[in-house]
Amino acid sequence: MKKACKGNLPALIFLLALVMAWQWGAMELDAAYILPTPWQILQKLWELRGPLFTVHLPATMSVTAIGLGISLFFGLALAVLMDRSPLVQKMLYPLVVASQTIPTTTIAPLFVLWFGYGIWSKILVTILITFFPITITVYDGFRAANGEMQELLLTYGAGPWETFRLVKIPCALPYFFSAVKMAVPMSVIGAAIGEWLGAQQGLGYFSRRMMTQLDGAGVFAPIVLLSLTAMAAVGIVELLERKLVRWRG
Asked: CA-CA distance, 143 to 137, in Å (whole number)?
């Protein structure tokens, strides 16, 4: 515990200095509708805790969880297929890369037009953002597997499944968790973008509504809540990684 506290001390000191600089700059500017102080944002969070925590946060987290879950399922499946079949890799790898060249802010309004203001237009935006890093990172993990170890298992009569299970999956696990840690914040961003462009509830929608009212603290409050939620989710993933990938580091 003490070691963890010492390791996080530089980050905490830097964060404190950043917040103090923000507070001073916002007070000097004296325009809360443009740049509210951190204290004003905390006050707004407490003032709006009812709708934020009971309506808008659950809506955003539902989109994030469903979108990330679908991306994980299909991303892992595609990574396995590309690893097992060079033909599939040649066919689909360029398409996966091309999917990341599509500007999210351009395609998101089309999703809203096609699927309406319901949950699925936001889920598709989340999938579009998170599918690529999961697929490519896990695929690179499979490719990084030790070739000599695979050959050794084959000489002992191991089949393709045993080689995949005993060598490639353990090798890809650290890559998988790295992909998830990248995808979690990106999924939150994707959900917020979808809600910002067209929704009836959610933190992105709430932030846009506060902007129309020139409420600077109201704009920042859901953003801070999104950031804290994403940080907590990444922390949970890191704990799982330490439990499951004991040999790393």
From this structure: 10
Domain residue ranges of the chain, discontinuous segments joined by +: 37-244
**Structure confidence at residue 157 (pLDDT):** 67
Instruction: With beta carbons less than 8 A apart as the criterion, state whether 104 and 128 touch.
Output: yes
216 vs 151, higher pLDDT: 216
Distance between CA atoms of residues 130 and 80, nearest Å: 17
Q: Among the listed ranges 20-34, 82-96, 184-198, which one has the minimum average pLDDT value?
A: 20-34
CB–CB of 130/186 below 8 Å? Answer: yes
Three-state secondary structure readout of the chain: CHHHHHHHHHHHHHHHHHHHHHHHHHHHHCCCCCCCCHHHHHHHHHHCHHHHHHHHHHHHHHHHHHHHHHHHHHHHHHHHHHHHCHHHHHHHHHHHHHHHHCCHHHHHHHHHHHHCCCHHHHHHHHHHHHHHHHHHHHHHHHHCCCHHHHHHHHHCCCCHHHHHHHHHHHHHHHHHHHHHHHHHHHHHHHHHHHHHHCCCCCHHHHHHHHHHCCCHHHHHHHHHHHHHHHHHHHHHHHHHHHHHCCCCC
Closest CA to 100 of 51, 64, 150, 136: 136
* CATH annotation of 37-244: 1.10.3720.10
Measured distance CA(27)–CA(78) in Å, rounded = 51
Query: pTM for the whole thing?
Result: 0.81
